[in-house]
Amino acid sequence: MISAADQLRELLKRPGLLIMPGCYDAMSAKLVQAAGFEVVFMSGFCVSGARLAMPDTGLISYHEMVDQGRNICNAVSIPVIGDGDTGFGNALNVKRTVQGYADAGFACIMIEDQVAPKRCGHTRGKTVVPREEALMRLQAAVDARNEGADILIMARTDARAIDGLEEGIARARAFTELGADITFLEAPTSEEEMSECCRSVPGPKMANLIEDGRTPLLPPAKLEAIGYKIAVYPLTLLNASIRAMQESLHSLRRGSTPERLLSFDQLKDTVGFNSYYAGEERYATER
Q1: What's the predicted TM-score (pTM) here?
Q2: At 19, which helix (H) or strand (E)?
Q3: CB within 8 A of 95, min separation 6: which ones?
Q4: How many distinct structural domains can be found in the chain?
Q5: Could you tell me the CATH number of the domain that includes residue 220?
Q6: Which of 6, 129, 153, 239 is most buried as measured by Cβ atoms within 10 A of its Cβ?
């Protein structure tokens, strides 16, 4: 059977833009696959929000992230890209994190160059480590892959917001030269900056599309035309689910039945009862 990492490698070789929703648990990942998407992203912002009800400011731990990721990877057969934050420590921690994510079933891990504790790339207060330290962090990730971890490495830089676009591009190029499989320059603020990044950095690149964020929400055709290979929508499902739950709770407080709910049969099928029943019949000892 082809590994998750090899599945992703094949997708990256194909022409066209990969649209990648973000997930935060096994159910949201399962829904992404059921909707026909070929790859899914485990968002640290969303896992922190859904699992802890806390912001993406470095509060969630390696153990919590890899545990959530293992459940997500077990729920789907499409490749999962996992948010590995800063690697949760020094270069040796980065190696352990990469190996742990590979063991959990991830196809790719994203490692970034922020100072720990990190922050969401579209919020205030973030800083980045010096370029030398960022390169050493990525070298450790690449070494873990090259030493046997069956996983791709996505290298993220947040330097655009701190030191300017030129430094962000320089880091992304250096990450590619070190062996990163995918690069991600976070939070360019215009189509011109996005185009400059794609022209200047070789290899597959990811665009991060956050509703009301700092980066323009360009349509997929435009993203592909300027050179992106992946477009991730990391917060959309968490955003939509919170809104839906708020509306349903408001209806219950008013004494009415929430609208637009699944039927009970649909809900049971979505969480897997029908598959379970089929298994019961297959392995029944009395017929």
Answers
A1: 0.95
A2: strand 18-23
A3: 140, 141, 143, 144
A4: 1
A5: 3.20.20.60
A6: 153
Q: Considering the domain boundaries, does residue 88 fall inside one?
A: yes
Residue 7 carries which side chain, given as an amino acid letter? Q
Report which secondary-structure segment, H or E, holds 152. strand 152-157
Contact 77, 51 (CB under 8 A): no
Q: What is the token pair recorded at 253?
A: 């407080």
The tokens describing 180, both together, are 């990163």
Tokens 């026909």 sit at which residue?
Answer: 36
Domain residues for the domain of 147 are 4-243
CA dist 136 and 147 (Å) reads 16
Mean pLDDT of successive 10-residue stretches along the chain, which has 287 residues? 96 98 98 98 97 94 98 98 96 97 98 85 79 97 98 97 96 98 96 97 97 94 98 98 97 96 96 94 85
Q: Are 80 and 105 in contact, with CB atoms under 8 Å apart?
A: yes
